[in-house]
Amino acid sequence: MKELGKRVLAGDIRAASRLIRNLEDQITDTYIAIQEIFKETGKSHVIGITGAPGAGKSTLTDELIQAYRSQGKTVGVLAVDPTSPFTGGALLGDRIRMLRHAEDPGVFVRSLATRGAMGGISKAVGEGIHVMDVLGKDRIIVETVGVGQQEVEIINHAHTVIVVLVPGMGDEIQALKAGLMEIADIFVINKADREGAGKLYKETMNMVQMSRDRAGVSKGWQIPVLLVESVMEPHKFAESVEKLRDKIEEHYQFLVDNDLISERMRRKTAAEIQEALWGAIMCPILNEMEASGEMKRMIDRCLLKDTDPYTLADEIALRYMKEGLAKDICADS
Amino acid sequence: MAQRRIRILLAKPGLDGHDRGARVLARSFRDAGFEVIYTGCHQTPEQIAATALQEDVDMVGLSCLSGAHNYLYPQVAKLLRDGGADDIVVVGGGIIPDKDIPTLKEAGIKEVFLPGAPLEVINDWIRANVTPKE
Amino acid sequence: MFTQELLDKSSLLRKKWEDEVKKVIAKNPDMKERWSTVSDLEIKRIYGPEDIKDMDFERDIAYPGQFPYLRGNQATGYRGKFWTFRMFAGMGTAVVTNQRWHYLLSTGQTGLSTAFDFPTLMGYDTDSPKAKGECGKCGVAIDTIDDFRDLIKGIPLDKITTSMTINPPATALWAMYCASAQEQGIPLTKIGGTIQNDMLKEFIAQKTLMCPPEPSVKLISDTIEFGTKYVPKWNTISISGYHIREAGATAVQELAFTLRDGMEYVEDAIRRKGLHVDEFAPRLSFFFNSHIDFFEEIAKLRAARRIWAKAMRERYNSQDPRSWWMRFHTQTAGCSLTAQQPYNNVVRTATEALAAVLGGTQSLHTNSLDEVLCLPSDHAVQIALRTQQLIAEETGVVNTIDPLAGSYFVEALTNEMEEKAWEYIHKIDEMGGMVAAIEKGFPQMEISDAAYKFQQQIDSGEKVMIGVNKYNIEDEVVDIPIVEIDDGIEQEQLRRLAETKRKRDSRKVAECLKDLAEACKKGDNVMPYCIEAVKNYATVQEICDVYREVYGEYRDPGIY
Predict the structure, then answer these.
(1) Looking at domain B7-128, which CATH architecture does it have?
(2) Per-domain residue ranges for chain B?
(3) What homologous superfamily does CATH list for A42-258?
(4) What pLDDT is attached to residue A315?
(5) C-alpha distances in angstroms, C380 versus C339, C349, C478?
(6) Which ranges in B45-100 belong to alpha helices (H)?
(7) Smallest Cα distance from A321 to chain C, Å
(8) What is the ipTM for the molecules in this complex?
(9) Minimal CA separation from C166 to chain A, in Å
(10) Does A110 touch chain B (CB under 8 A)?
(11) A-chain residues within 8 Å CB-CB of C213?
């Protein structure tokens, strides 16, 4: 595992993709590789793109890659799609829209499935960012899955959060519900040629003005609302995405100039410590309990109302705090 | 909790756009519990190989109905080998004459599925022949 | 349709029959509970007068040549002229395809139909890196007018109509046809044929993509305008359901999406070009699939004529009956054929061809038994063509027009097809038209759902494909000759292209392309510029590159 970290530091794409895979799969001891590379992280500007499914996040990401590449900046992309809760399988189709960059060595696109495990996706995204970071990607774009509670967690990973809205989807309300309005650093009204774009623009502007003095992590930043033309007008689309890119850069500069980066970094690091603790404590315990069949027995007992999850959790917490993990599982990799 | 999932890249090399089979397979793979990265039509072997490396897949599934499989499939396998990824299983499907199959297998295509192959047969083959990375 | 007396009697008799059915089923249950078409449309055990009692004979059925054209456009049916036997052919270089064409004409084929190779279809030249390995494989490779001249050598352009299955580069290929005719001294008013030129179905189904939908429709309106003014016998578009069906759509989806595509083109030509609907609508042609479910296909084709006639008259206020006619070509379903026990494909194709004829097609391609394995061999093509000739000249089905009219079942199914198609059409209207629906991924998703469902039904055995999931032969050895395209073709074509590029005046080519780009930017009709460019040996790709540059390249949004 140590080897993997070294190879990633040396810029080995295969090692990087394997490391992300190991982290996603929560393979024991993978953290050793992260330890190897952690010192080198923190150089990339991380951009989160969130918004409802069908809002055009992947197409926007594709054009944003192009906009950065035209300036010679390298780009990493983490694209998240949902795992089927029934089969555990996943259809990861975001990169179909980023195909033109497939052969560009300055671009590394990686698809992630949410997997549905507790805290799983946020952790995998954070770790994926580290890997892309040490590969030297200047900008890292995280495209979220677009639904669910975890959307707001993007704020823990990104320096700049873009919330994408589309006219005619009832997005405004969705976004509000998901708490996305509070995390946005930039709003994009995508497919601005569609009916209702003007209305959506106005509503979003109103909302932005009302929450101007929010206590968020971009204090004093004037949240812009950008209109992006339909991808069906490729030239206009490219132009408006270039404007978006410039706004993103402006936002990052604002964070730097106002010493807000360190605040974001503290937040990010706190989240990461929690996730790492979860990985270090909960993961091995859960692994052991699955492997020994204890989990299954506990579920059976709870279903029979023989006991309850809270009592069991207390018991297990006590036991592990006293005894620790069984040695053989600990060393297993 | 630690669990390897089979990751598959499904792609259509070449210029034909007949993606009915590929689209059906993409859904079928998902429903079989695999993680499938579907990159659609009109891709060059170079794009497919680069994607396979970035995505750390266990298998690359190729579909081509234009008759250009004799060039395209081996080229993908070769590019993967050149990229140090000969552990990635490459399989192909489509309208492929029987007599091309041995040549394709020799060129590194591990299995060839012909029109009419049931989804379950393909999924079972994957479960038996593709092991997620250690 | 019926008197109350008849309906009452029918109801009485029906009750008796139902009781009998119950009795028999109690002893001998049906083999399965649900009976449905290949598109999964549920079919009843029997149909009777009550199923079509709301029809009005004059309004809904009438006679051939009478609105709503349910029974056909022509008053005389197939007695004056059979449908056109039009076999799709193309392979290797232009010279090879030209030989095949002459062979087909000598065996009794009455129209030509061109299959292009994938680089040509996508607007790339043989020397593009994207074309590697594809040259001549699935059709003929055309890079410049030099190739085109070889393709049509010895074909009398004023007598034989030629269909060209070409979409994004349709303007370039049609320009070559027009330019070649002029070279032979044949006026444009005399040439007849069809360019497929239907981009909407490409976005929906076949994915031969180049520019975004909006400019793609603009280019199509250019050809419609140019045809209307200068090439009046040409069908400038063949609005195609064939590929939609092959991509996994149901019969209803094929019907609805194809006709809605047609309406989109009509609306664009009226809006953008200021044409009156009756100036161009008589030259619109359609192209349907004939799948294996016999009655469903007949009903679909009959419904198509009736929907189109109504739409033209009521939605677009067309006054000219020729605009109300839906004229269509049909091809039997490639996706119904099996690689297993391939000789069974002859039977499938014959059944499908019969459905197309009973549905009143104007033109027909019958697939060859080996098409699921390779390009068709001469022998296989001959059997396919003979299938049509046999239907026309032996079976007697051409003796009378629309023989299934008035059948309770066929009329009810036709009505059901029409009703369900209008539901889709109205839904797409609500989305803002077909371009908007495509941008939302609506038709693509509907088709993907249907395709997956069908495959699951095949896997579960609910639907049967003989040789695939029933009556399989263990370790079957498929013993039919496989036609292969020699890889040497690519070298030969590269040589030809290089030669043309060497001999042409490249300054003149650059000028022509610049003029074309200007025309694109200004929104002028591109056709005159394309004709000028191909005369000066501009390649298919060079013309398409101009479009890609000016209009931008479309990237598949990946909806599945």
Answers:
(1) 3-Layer(aba) Sandwich (3.40)
(2) 7-128
(3) P-loop containing nucleotide triphosphate hydrolases (3.40.50.300)
(4) 92
(5) 14, 12, 15
(6) 45-55, 69-82
(7) 49
(8) 0.93
(9) 22
(10) yes
(11) 232
